[in-house]
Amino acid sequence: MSNETASAARTLTLRILRHNPQDPASEPRWARYELEEYEGMTLFIALNEIRERFEPSLQFDFVCRAGICGSCGMVVNGRPGLACRTLTSTLPSEITLAPLPAFKLIGDLSVDTGQWMRGMSERLETWIHEQAETDLHALEERMEPELAEQIYELDRCIECGCCIAACGTARMREDFVGAVGLNKLARFRLDPHNARTDADLYELIGDDDGVFGCMTLLGCHDVCPKELPLQTQIAFLRRKMVTVS
Ligand code: SF4
Ligand code: F3S
Ligand code: FES
Fold first, then answer.
1. Across the chain, which distance is largest between two alpha carbons, in Å?
2. From the CB of 82, is ligand 3 less than 6 Å away?
3. Helix (H) or strand (E) holding 181
4. pLDDT tens over the chain, length 245 residues
5. Which residue owns the Cα nearest ligand 2 atom 1?
6. What's the number of domains the chain is made of?
7. The pTM is what?
8. Ligand 3 pocket residue status of 72, Cβ below 6 Å
9. What CATH number does residue 36 fall under?
10. Considering only CA atoms, which residue is closest to atom 6 of ligand 1?
11. Staple 208 to which of 151, 168, 213, 236, CB 3.0 to 4.6 Å?
12. How far is the CA of 29 from the centre of ligand 3 (A)?
């Protein structure tokens, strides 16, 4: 019997950490729901079923349902991941769901990753800094396909926040830029349009809120749903920052 066939007959128990910080009377509590599993069920489907059948007030975020928007990150049985891309058949029948830590809680499983990402992006100025004399009307120089591919690879970050939720340093240091921030600077560093030097980057990430705060715990690398090469990027940036310090 295939795993999928076996799991289709299961009853799932979902324990969900519920809390509404807007309501002074609300206390964090575990709520328990039971569902019959069926083939192809994802956590997105399961949560919608719970909301439709048992608990209309349950809060969680989804937009794309396809691993693209990054809005459905949550802690699934202790591990950050995307609910829309998680098949229940890959999990035991007892499933615990909790909001991503390190972000502002909106309610239940919904957190405000946008505020965190915006703060980090503004601190690191995660956009192209062009040469002052750039002629905006001139044709761009041709980029080698291999380089374009390398940049594209790092651009696949969906800002889901899973790497921050899995990082011990991010839990201790509020302003730590995390793997998501370091990956962005590594991406812009590769870009031939970028005018910032490694010395400029050192000003931004050459401290304990940047690349030297990373303790190489590698939770980020293990949980990134886009499988970005975070370990390699962080190690590379650290070597570069050591040489300019
Ligand atoms: Fe999510 Fe990976 Fe981007 Fe971190 S680096 S925000 S885990 S996609
Ligand atoms: Fe955190 Fe990843 Fe470094 S988990 S400590 S950013 S290797
Ligand atoms: Fe968009 Fe899950 S709903 S990544």
1. 66
2. yes
3. helix 178-190
4. 445 444 458 999 999 999 999 999 999 999 999 999 999 999 999 999 999 999 999 999 999 999 999 999 999 999 999 999 999 999 999 999 999 999 999 999 999 999 999 999 999 999 988 877 767 777 778 899 999 999 999 999 999 999 999 999 999 999 999 999 999 999 999 998 889 999 999 999 999 999 999 999 999 999 999 999 999 999 999 999 999 87
5. 167
6. 2
7. 0.93
8. yes
9. 3.10.20.30
10. 159
11. 213
12. 25
